[in-house]
C-alpha cells in the first residue's frame, strides 16, 4: 500500500521554522512504508525531472534496489504541516513530504511530493543533508529541463560545471529477451563480451547468435594452436623458458574462460 496524502494537502500553510522539519533515516526505519513512499515518489516523476529512470521499475525491482543500500545516505523528509480546508482547520501533524539522498560519489538527489512543493522543503532538506554529511564538495545531476531544480541548487550555491550527453543504444536482443541499455560499464577479461547496464537488474551480452558462433570457431582455432605451442615448449626447444610456458598456459586458460562466456551467450540465445 502506498501512503495517502492528506486530502487537504493542496491547501498547505507550512511553518518554515527549522524545528518543523527533520530527516528520517530510510535505512534505519526501512519497512513497508519506506518502500511505498519512495515508490510513490518515482511514480510522480515527470520526464523533465528524470535522468536515471526512463521506465518505471516494477515493485519487486524497486524493493531490491532499496534493499541493496545503493546510497551513502537516504532520508525521508518529515515535516509538520498545517492543512487549512475551506471549512475547518486540521491539526498540525508530522507528514512525509519527500525524500533526499547522498550517493557514494557525493551526489545529492531530492524529490518532494507535488502536493507539498513550493514550501522550501527541498532546499531545507538538502541543507540538512549537507550538515549531517560534511564533504569537500557536493554534486547534483539535474535534467536541464527541470528549471525548478536548477534554480533551487543555484540558490544553494551550486554552480554549473558540465554538460553530459547520452546516446541511447536502443534494445539489445537476447534471444527472446530484450532490455534497454543506455549507460554501460565494460567488464574485464573473460567478461569483456558482456555489457552491464548500471541498473543492476539489467545485463546484456553484446554479441548476437551469429557473432557468437563465429567467435566460438575463432577461439577453438586459437585454442588448438596454443595447445601445439604448449606441447613444443614442454619438450624444451632451444631458447624456451619456464616463463614462456607459463604465459602460454595462462593464455590458454583465458581462452577457455572466454569460450565459456560465448557458450553462455549461445545458450541464452536459445532461451
CATH topology of the largest domain: Aminopeptidase
Helix content: 25-40%
Report the sheet-strand fraction.
Answer: 15-25%
Low-confidence stretches: 1-18, 171-208, 265-271
The whole-number mean of residue pLDDT values reads 69
Radius of gyration: 27 Å
Task: Supply the CATH class of the largest domain.
Answer: Alpha Beta
Main sheet overview: 5 strands, antiparallel
Q: Report, as a whole number of angstroms, the end-to-end distance.
A: 35 Å
Query: How many distinct helices?
Result: 6
Shape: elongated
Number of strands: 10
| CATH architecture heading of the largest domain | 3-Layer(aba) Sandwich
Can you say what the CATH homologous superfamily of the largest domain is?
A: Gcn5-related N-acetyltransferase (GNAT)
SSE order, one letter for each helix or strand: EEHHEEEHHEEEEEHH
Q: Helices and strands: which structural class?
A: alpha+beta
- Oligomer type: single chain
How many discrete structural domains?
3
Organism: marine sediment metagenome
GO molecular function: acyltransferase activity, transferring groups other than amino-acyl groups
Protein name: N-acetyltransferase domain-containing protein
Amino acid at each position: 500500500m502506498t501512503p495517502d496524502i492528506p486530502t487537504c494537502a493542496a491547501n498547505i500553510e507550512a511553518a518554515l521554522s527549522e524545528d518543523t522539519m527533520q530527516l528520517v533515516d530510510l535505512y534505519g526505519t526501512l519497512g513497508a512504508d519506506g518502500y511505498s513512499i519512495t515508490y510513490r515518489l518515482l511514480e510522480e516523476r515527470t520526464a523533465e525531472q528524470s535522468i536515471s529512470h526512463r521506465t518505471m521499475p516494477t515493485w519487486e525491482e524497486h524493493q531490491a534496489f532499496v534493499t541493496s543500500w545503493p546510497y551513502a545516505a537516504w532520508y525521508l523528509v518529515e515535516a509538520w504541516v498545517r492543512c487549512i480546508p475551506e471549512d475547518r482547520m486540521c491539526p498540525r501533524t508530522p507528514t512525509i513530504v519527500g525524500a533526499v539522498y547522498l550517493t557514494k560519489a557525493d551526489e545529492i538527489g531530492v524529490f518532494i511530493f507535488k502536493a507539498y512543493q513550493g514550501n522550501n522543503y527541498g532546499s531545507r532538506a538538502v541543507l540538512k543533508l549537507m550538515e549531517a554529511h560534511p564533504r569537500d564538495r557536493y554534486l547534483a545531476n539535474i535534467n536541464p529541463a527541470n528549471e525548478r531544480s536548477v534554480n533551487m541548487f543555484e540558490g544553494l550555491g551550486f554552480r554549473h560545471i558540465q554538460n553530459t550527453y547520452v546516446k541511447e543504444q536502443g534494445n539489445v536482443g537476447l534471444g527472446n529477451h530484450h532490455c534497454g541499455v543506455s549507460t554501460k560499464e565494460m567488464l574485464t577479461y573473460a567478461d569483456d563480451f558482456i555489457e552491464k547496464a548500471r541498473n543492476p537488474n539489467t545485463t546484456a551480452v553484446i554479441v548476437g547468435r551469429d557473432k557468437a558462433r563465429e567467435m566460438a570457431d575463432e577461439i577453438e582455432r586459437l585454442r588448438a594452436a596454443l595447445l601445439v605451442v604448449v606441447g613444443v615448449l614442454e619438450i624444451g626447444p632451444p631458447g624456451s623458458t619456464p616463463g614462456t610456458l607459463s604465459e602460454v598456459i595462462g593464455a590458454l586458460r583465458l581462452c577457455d574462460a572466454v569460450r565459456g562466456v560465448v557458450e553462455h551467450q549461445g545458450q541464452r540465445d536459445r532461451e
